[in-house]
Prior knowledge:
alpha/beta, Rossmann fold, seven-stranded parallel β-sheet, 18 helices, 14 strands, Glycos_transf_N_sf, cell membrane, Glyco_trans_1, membrane, 3-deoxy-D-manno-octulosonic acid transferase
Amino acid sequence: MLSFSRLAYTSLLTLLSPWAKKRMARERVNEFSERQRAGHISPFEKPVIWAHCASMGEVLAAEPLLKALQERHPNKQLVVTTMTATGAAQVRQRLPEARHYLVPLDLPWNTQRFVKTLKPLVGIIFETEIWPNLIHSCYQAGIPLIIANGRLSPKAFNAYKKIRPLMADALKKVTYLAAKADEDAQRFVALGFPETRVEVTGTIKYDLQLAADFEQQLTHLKENLNLDARPVWIAASTHEGEDAPLLAAHQKILAKQPNALLILVPRHPQRFDEAAKLIQDKNLNLARRSLEEPIQATTQVYLGDTLGEMLLLYALADIAFVAGSLEPIGGHNLLEPAAVGVPVITGPHLQNFSEVANLLRDAGALAEVEQAEELPELVLNLWQDKNTCQTMQTAALQVVEANKGAMQKQLTLVESLLP
């Protein structure tokens, strides 16, 4: 039976479903995408462990836990759902033995159809994906759910507070919350999550695992790109409104360091061509990763317009600027450059990664700017000051190493729910 809050939510979503379907059509992965959004999937011969990751970032964060589950439970089928096509691409690349589907639109008839066919032993929802009808369909079918790497930013919390009855109705049906920090746990509880079912485990993003052949891949890439000991900095996960000021900063760097190279990596694939045009409009010499264009002596910007190579691109650089922080986006994963030993710079908007930023800051592993105009001086100074660079690298690696272990805690929680 629908509670009043879920009835109101379902009614509103039903009215908005034509608009929602139009938006979702952008995230098409194959000819069955529309059917998957309606909850149509194929049945499985093996028992299923199901994980839901919103997009690329959540897949990358979830990878260590999901790989551990695959290794420890080879007789079970891992199924991963995502909201986006970029998330789907990461699942296919990083978890090739998993089955991928797009998550159904959160209407009861879709979610019931999906859960009835899937019949998972357990469901793992990563970070902040709270879909009331999907959660209710699992609860109705007796499927235990865990929110892993549970994260609730102040912005998301304030938005969810406006619909607290709906959130409380959904959250009380979740078996466990593995929160990444005390602050996140407190926000979930304030929304109605039962406090007795909360465990603060830390974030599995610290358990980031490099590929076994990572060093070989990196050496091969460096040889192919002909970097020739050039000073290199990277601006990664950029959003609309950030590329232009970052390119302007690079032009100022070039005025003092003519052989400097910027690796620019837009966050979303649909912006790759837009970023390429912007670089050309700025009269900067461009090479594109997707076209396998070599870096010439005259190349000034290398566009990282591929998926799944972020760690390799970070490792090519001497200094990393993590974007999503110049605009009020909330920042992106500061641990990726830290894990490959690259000094980290960020902008002022860090609400999504405040805990990680605090640890890196306290360790002396993080440099911060208020605006892009401050970057040229900072980048040039770090290139010249090798001791400071080395200190930041060492401190960043130590922070990552000291905070590992969340993956094992969350694995234990998930396995406690398996029959």
